Amino acid sequence: MAVCARLCGVGQSRRCRRRQRQNQRDQDTDPELEMDEEEEERIVGKMQTEAGPRCLSDSAAAAAPGPGVAGVCCTPMTATSVNNRLGTGPPGCKGPATANSLLDLPPELLVEIFASLPGTTLPNLALVCKKFRQILNTETIWRRRCIEEFGMHEDLRKVEVVGMASRELYVKLLHPYRHILGLWQPDIGPYGGLLNVVVDGLFIIGWMYLPPHDPRVDDPMRRRPLFRIHMWENSKATVECMYGHKGPHQGDIQTVKKDEFSTKCNQTDHHRMSGGRQEEFRTWLEEEWGRTLEDIFHEHMQELILMKFIYTSQYDNCLTYRRIYLPPHQPTDLLRPGLFKGTYGSHGLEIVMFSFHSTRAKGTKLTGDPNVPAGQMTLDIDLSRPVQLPDLEQQRSIEELSRLVLGIHEQVQREQAECEARGGDGGQEADTDANPPQECRQRQEAEAEGAAGGEMGLENALQDEPTGAASEARPIESEPLAFVLPLGVMARTEVYPRTCKMCFYGTGLIAGHGFTSPERTPGMFVLFDEDRFGFIWLELKSFSLYSRITDTLPYAQAPSMESFEEMLKNMQSWTS
User: Fold this and answer.
1) β-pairing, 203-210 with 222-230?
2) Disulfide-capable partner of 387 in 57, 100, 503, 518 (CB 3.0 to 4.6 Å)?
3) How far apart, in Å, are the Cα atoms of 467 and each of 358, 439, 442, 471, 563?
4) Contact yes or no for 507/433 (Cβ under 8 A)
5) Is 506 exposed, middle or buried (CB count within 10 Å of its CB: 0-12, 13-18, 19+)?
6) CA separation (Å) from 556 to 65, 136, 560, 564?
7) Cα end-to-end span (Å), the chain
């Protein structure tokens, strides 16, 4: 650093440095800052020699003055002459002394500067000199870093109660494990899951989020701790597995690669129960479904539950997690995107990520089942194709609803066939409705109002929009419409809203066991309010109700829409 300062013309001359060393010989100095005198002079001399030709050429160019410009000669200058001319030399040199380095600033100002820097840069800053290392021991710096980077406010009071320094907490716990904070999807085959890793006082805890017991879709989410990291008992971070019913026990966390980590339990005997597998199954069933096997009379449902228990119990000692993001929110979105819990027949409640993509809305499973696994796009809604609801009496007829929806579905198929005939990408398989060729999509948007826009009765809401304005998909304030499910459509609960805002054509993904023969089947998306929507599966004659997950989920925002789109593609590949 001394060499760099001298080359910049603001450092100390050799004579001044000798005088300072003579005056401070008995004072405490840091050997890490000192450089061999001969080595320093060799480096400075070499760099000044290399700069000589450039200086001469520059002076030659400057010597020929332009109009009204005096010639300037570039003469070699020593560090001492620069210091004297600028008045930046140390005591004993000519010129007034002024502060020219961070070392000259008062400690309280350095504390304020260092506290504003990211915590990742502070360890390197401590290597500069002894003074910086001493200042970086200030509790204020690390307290602010804990608050600004990890949102710790009230938690810091808990840290003070146990006598732990904020620096120790940051350096040994928060900083080393910062990369695992946020939302993750566990790799549990088709079932998936939702893990939220957060800072909680002296702990970093991984909470597994579980939907409420079927069919109470409006109930809050349940949480179960899978692991925790703490510094409660010793001066280094300790990882503990929380699975099972015998309390915390030894575990381990390994970073596999970027945006992926794994947990391992080193004491799996803590997961076992004295009553054997039968007791474990009964306990799991009570926690997972809130009932006993005798309460479930449907034989097919019993088989699905038993299958899930056997499959998921294989992952009780080691799990891999992949990072996921919350969908970005745009002002034009029909409603605020996010996470929802929805009813899926015999499979119970599942977690779905609902997001907007231009003229379409997509629902991606975070938890799945043996038919349609986690990571797949369960819903694909075409926001450019609204559906007009008939009066209540006609709504009760499944035939009338089928006529409306299938009419739009046939039109979509005709348009796609025309696109393929004109040389569009006809290689789409089960995902054709979800991702039509760009040319087809633009034409569909242009024709949306003429084909289906008038059926919705949204003329007043869209009257100022040009053709294809439904593609804007911005929130529309309209009078609530009366709504009732058609007779013959099965619903897991009779408690659903009796009014809605609007309806759109869409498709849902269905498949056989093991995700065989997947296909998209037509249906109708029903927007009830900001926090609830539904989907009627025409072919299955069933209704799914979705309710927003309102839990606060920090560290989960997508860096960009492109990153979120890439994440969705990766999620589908994980389970395909």
Assistant:
1) antiparallel
2) 503
3) 16, 16, 11, 9, 31
4) yes
5) buried
6) 61, 30, 12, 11
7) 55
Collapsing DSSP states into helix, strand and coil, what is residue 275? Answer: coil
Which pTM was predicted?
0.73
Q: Can you tell me the distance from the alpha carbon of 321 to that of 323, in angstroms, rounded to the nearest whole number? A: 7
Residue by residue, DSSP assigns 347-411 as G-EEEEEEEEETTEEEEEESB--SSS-TTSEEEEEEEEEE-----HHHHT-HHHHHHHHHHHHHH
Q: Would you say 181 and 200 are in contact if contact means Cβ atoms under 8 Å apart?
A: no
The tens digit of pLDDT for each residue in 454-482 reads 333 333 333 343 333 334 444 445 688 99
How far is Cα 119 from Cα 97, in angstroms, rounded to an integer?
A: 33
Q: What is the C-alpha separation between 315 and 574, in angstroms, rounded?
A: 17
The half-sphere exposure of 434 on its side-chain side, counting CA atoms within 13 A, is: 19
Rg over CA atoms, the chain = 33
- 3-state DSSP call for residue 291? coil
The C-alpha torsion from 104 through 106 and 107 to 109, rounded to 10°, is -110
What is the distance between the alpha carbons of residues 237 and 227, in angstroms, rounded to a whole number?
13
Residue type at 213 in one-letter notation: H
> What SS3 state is found at 319?
strand
C-alpha 448/C-alpha 434 separation (Å) is 16
Helices (H) and strands (E) in the chain, counts: 17, 19
Q: Where are the alpha helices (DSSP H) in 391-485?
A: 392-395, 398-421, 438-451, 459-462
Of 102, 159, 118, 167, nearest to 140 (Cα)?
A: 167
Cβ proximity of 535 and 526 under 8 Å:
yes
Query: For 419-457, b where at least 16 C-beta lie within 10 A, e where not — what string?
Result: bbeeebeeeeeebbbbebbeebbebbbebbbebbbebbe
Decide: 387 and 458 in contact? Cβ < 8 Å.
no
pLDDT of the residue at 477 = 57
Dihedral, 61, 62, 66, 71 alpha carbons, nearest 10: -140
- What pLDDT score was predicted for residue 108? 85
What distance in Å separates the CA atoms of residue 546 and residue 473, rounded to the nearest whole number?
Answer: 20
CA distance 472 to 497: 26
DSSP 458: -
pLDDT at 16 over 70: no
44-74 pLDDT, tens per residue? Answer: 455 445 444 444 344 444 434 443 333 333 3
Closest by CA to 340, choosing from 321, 365, 315, 314, is 365
Tokens of 275: 């009553």
